Amino acid sequence: MAAEEINEDYPAEIHEYLSTFENSIGAVDEMLKTMMSVSRNELLQKLDPLEQAKVDLVSAYTLNSMFWVYLATQGVNPKEHPVKQELERIRVYMNRVKEITDKKKAGKLDRGAASRFVKNALWEPKPKNASKAANKGKSKN
Question: Where in the cell is it found (predicted)?
Answer without folding.
Answer: Cytoplasm; Nucleus, Nucleolus
